[in-house]
Predict the 3D structure of the following.
Amino acid sequence: MLAVCITMLMMTSKPSFALGKLGHQLTCQLAFEQLRPKSQQKIIRLLNTMPAKALAHLNKYNHSESKAPMTYAKACTWADAIKKESKFERFKSWHYINVKRDKSFIDRKSCRNNCVTQAVIYHQEQLTSSRSEQQKRQALMFLGHWLGDIHQPLHVSFASDLGGNKTKIIFQDDKCTNLHWVWDQCLLTEQVETNDDQIRYEYLYQKLSKILNKNKKNGNVEKWKTDDIYRWASESITLARLPKFGYCTTTKDNHCKVNAPRPYQLMNDYQKYFAPVINERIVKAAVRLAHRLEQSL
């Protein structure tokens, strides 16, 4: 009975977040709710054994009380929360994959080490086979984060501009001054006019849940589950290379040339055009994450 109560708490608990964490929390909350109760309870047990110091650190990062119960939604921000810690230095490059500007798809040869495609494989295997509770918990949190990252188009892009972080743009929200920031944050936050984080989260959660249910009915969810990580990454770079995306312009030799001038003026209806795209990317990430978790837990 206690396990059931805890499960219900995690399913209904609403995350507290800084805006940049919104996409990851939505991805992992939607994924968690797709799992069988048995798998949900395994996640809860792992998160409930988190050391007090780590719990307080992650809760602080998510603007929660230090002893607040850890949800999977909050746990999926862990890979960002520990970026500045020296013992996790090697994982910094695992958030993304860089390719040459003439690359329009991702395969095994694109990267074998220290990138997001390899990160998914590594931490799924660790979650499946590790006998260490700490390793399994970290793998669980890393895996959720990597699934979010690989579905954000600019985490599969080019090193020369740091995945759009150096791509200065003019956007309807003056807070977002580079293209990576637009895709990490503003395409989500601009979907509802409010300064209240909780209202924004609730609105997007309900919206994405409807998208998920629609795709369950039309059979897309089952198709998404069977796709592999290189398909996910290829979807992202295909989006990033679209002319309307505002990242680059494809030349005759398939080279993705930097747009000029800088800052680059995004098209007027950019938000309207691409908000449904980021919403579907998050839903796909949640579906694929849930599938991987069921395989591994």
Remarks:
- The mean pLDDT is 90.
- The radius of gyration is 19 Å.
- The beta strands are 97-98, 156-157, 169-170, 248-250, 256-258, 264-265.
